[in-house]
Structures are given as structure tokens and as C-alpha cells.
Amino acid sequence: MQAVDQVQQAFSGIWLPLVTPFADGSVDFPALARLVAHYAGSGIAGIVVCGSTGEAAALDEAEQLAVLDTVLASAGSLPVMMGVAGSQVKQVQARVRRLAGLPLAGLLAPAPYYVRPSQAGLLDYFRTLADSAAAPLVLYDIPYRTGVKLETETILALAAHPNIRAIKDCGGDYHGTQAVIADARLSVLAGEDHQLLGTLCLGGAGAIIASAHLYPALFVALAQAVAGQRLEHARRLFHAVMPVIKLLFAEPNPGPLKAMLAREGWTRNELRAPMKSAGAALEAALAQACERLGAVVPELLG
Questions:
Q1: How far apart are CA 264 and CA 7, in angstroms?
Q2: Is 53 labelled as part of a ligand binding site?
Q3: Which of 48, 79, 101, 292 could form a disulfide with 17 if both were Cys (CB 3.0 to 4.6 A apart)?
Q4: Where are the alpha helices (DSSP H) in 24-88?
Q5: pLDDT at residue 275, as a whole number
Q6: What is residue 9's predicted lDDT score, i.e. its pLDDT?
Q7: Residue 253 belongs to a domain
Q8: 0.90 cut: is pTM over it?
Q9: Domain presence at residue 50
Q10: Cα 292 from chain centre
């Protein structure tokens, strides 16, 4: 039980999958540093670098490492997790080994995309990465991006590996989520923003959610309310943020999110092709929803 508790403490709370700011096509490192410093004081549990919200697929390896270096230099004591993705196991394994000397809280690894391996192939893939990693491996089950789902039996088999500690759950399988939480060997982090409250109430340890870029204190308070058995307050917070969450994902992420961050002055409203900025109508609707939410934040947190 003590080992399980340690896992839950290491990967719990609200983690932020950080956007990557761009300026005229290049990574905007000053804006990135400002964002990290801002969120480091917001109460979140940690930052995830080079996830899908960070447009990692649009960054070459040198850019990814430079982004990581900037985040680590700006994060202070805030834990940092790095995304590692690819379709070729030896290439991803080599990347994992190159990260070994950095002070990372974990490595977030999805299934190999496009090739759609069998469940046996997935077991081999994740065990190979976990064997090679200095930091704990966090599984990332997101079948609508990778083309293959981590079945519950596969996740539970991987939970036996001493260096696989958590899972970002975007699998959309309620029964599977419940089974992994009940098994208790992995820390289960909600990866779909609209499933945050349900996962936490099932016993999930936290979340990695893009919407926490906006009003992060509300999401932190929501997680704390569930942990403290103040479920009526947690529901109130969740219902308050859901209109914003819904609009943030009405077009491909992180387009709508970057539009709001640009309005707040944190970064430019710029993405790398083939990603596009949010449409004008969605941006206007999202700005109105954020304004309504912002008006009640003092009451919600009071």
C-alpha cells in the first residue's frame, strides 16, 4: 500500500500540457519562459512538454529539446514531464536515452502511431521504453490519434513493470478506466477534459488537461474539492467550466486555446501548418464564455 500511495503522490493533481508559442514561424522562447513562470505559481502539479497540445509533431528534435531546456530553466521546483512519441521503436528508445540526464518527473509515451501494432507489440514497445528510461514512464492511451487502443488487459500487464507508474487516459472506455483505478498500481490521470470530474470521482489521481491553461485555479480547486469529499462544490466548479471546455475543443486543439492566450497577451495566435487558428465565430463565442466564467471566479473560489 505504501508503494501505491507513493505513485499516487508522484502523479496526481492537475498537470498542464503546455502550448508551444510561435512568432513568425519560430519558437518564441521568451513567451514560453513567461508562460512557465506564470503557471508555476498557479497551483498546478506539473507541466507536460511536447504533448499534442504543444504541437510536438510540428517540432523537430532540436526544437523539442530547446523547448524542454527553456521549461526546465523556468519551472523552478515544478515537476516537468516530457512527451516522447514516434513509430519506430529504436528511434524513440534513443530519444528516451538522450533524456536520461535531465531532471524529469516522467516521460509521456503514446502508442506508436499509424502502424497499429497488436497488443503483444504494444507490450514489447512500452516495456522497451520503460527499460531504457531514467524517469518513470507514463502511458498515453489516445486511440483516435494513434489508431490503436491500449486494451485494459494490456494496461494491467504493463502496470507490473517497476518503471511504468501512470496513465493519461483518453481511451474513452469507462469500464477500463474503472478497472485500472480499482487495480491501484497505476496513477490514472484524465486526459479528456470533459471526463475530469468523472475520473476524479471514480478515484483517479488527477488530470493532464489543456483547458487548465485558462483559470487554472478553478481546475486545481476542483481536484482538491473531490479529494476533500466536497462533491457539491466540485460539481459546481465543473458545471461552471464546461461551457469553456466545450468551445475549446469545437475546433482542433490548440487553435481555440491559443486564440484565448493571445487575447490575454501571453503569446501570439500562431500555429504551425497544417494546424490553423480558430475561426472568428468560435473565437468570439469562446471570448464571451471566458468573460462569463471570469466574472464568477471570485465567487467560485471564495
A1: 36
A2: yes
A3: 48
A4: 29-40, 61-74
A5: 97
A6: 63
A7: no
A8: yes
A9: yes
A10: 25
Q: Cα–Cα distances in Å, from 200 out to 14, 190, 228, 231? A: 11, 8, 11, 10
Nearest CA-CA partner of 186 in 229, 130, 268, 147: 130
Q: What's the average pLDDT block by block, 10 residues per block, for the chain (302 residues)?
A: 51 98 98 97 97 97 98 97 96 97 97 96 98 98 95 98 98 94 98 97 98 98 98 98 98 98 97 97 98 96 90
Sequence-ordered list of residues with C-beta below 8 angstroms from that of 123, at least 6 positions apart, any chain: 154, 157, 158
Residues tagged active-site: 140, 168
Indicate which CATH number applies to the domain containing 29: 3.20.20.70
What is the extent of the structural domain holding 53? Answer: 2-228
In a domain, 239, yes or no: no
Flag whether 84 is in a domain: yes
Which cell numbers in the block locate residue 132? 531504457
264: nearest Cα among 71, 60, 31: 31
Strands 187-190 and 164-169: parallel
